[in-house]
């Protein structure tokens, strides 16, 4: 499949290899949770996907408009709040732009960042199924 991500784990506790096409990354847990701290752990990896998508989307838009965007920095945090009926995760994204941009351009870039594909995925209902091979 073109969009298939393959994740595998062997004998080393919590160290996983993520394969997507010709690309590979290591995901792990920190040592205090029993991992080897060989790579980023899963929750920050999810946040990095969102942040990367926002930065790429903004850069593509600015490039098409020929705007003088030199750098995009996206800082992300998350907080989980439990209630009796559900768990709610709050993700905060702080974007900053470097370049000779006016306020109108910056506001447009903030709006464009919310249109990135990962933001759309995470903002809408998600159905996850688990099956055996």
How would you describe what is shown here?
This protein is of the alpha+beta class and 133 residues long. The chain has helices spanning 42-65, 103-113, 117-123, and strands spanning 6-9, 16-20, 23-27, 69-82, 87-99. Strands 1-2-3 form a three-stranded antiparallel sheet, with no helix packed on it. It has a two-stranded antiparallel ribbon with strand order 4-5. α1 (42-65) packs across α2. 11% of the residues are buried.
What is this structure, in a nutshell?
The chain is an alpha+beta fold and 133 residues long. The protein contains 3 helices and 5 strands. The two termini are 15 Å apart.
Provide the fold topology.
Elements (H helix, E strand, L loop, with lengths): L5 E4 L6 E5 L2 E5 L14 H24 L3 E14 L4 E13 L3 H11 L3 H7 L10
Antiparallel strand pairs: 1-2, 2-3, 4-5
Describe the biggest sheet? 3 strands, antiparallel
Low-pLDDT stretches: none
Element string (H = helix, E = strand): EEEHEEHH
**Total number of β-strand segments?**
5
Major sheet strand order:
1-2-3
Secondary-structure class: alpha+beta
Oligomer: single chain
Number of helices: 3
What is the average per-residue confidence, as pLDDT, rounded to a whole number? 96
Q: Level of helix content?
A: 25-40%
Radius of gyration: 18 Å
Q: What is the CA–CA distance across the termini?
A: 15 Å
Which key features would you list for this structure?
two-stranded antiparallel sheet, three-stranded antiparallel sheet, 5 strands, 133 residues, alpha+beta, globular, 3 helices
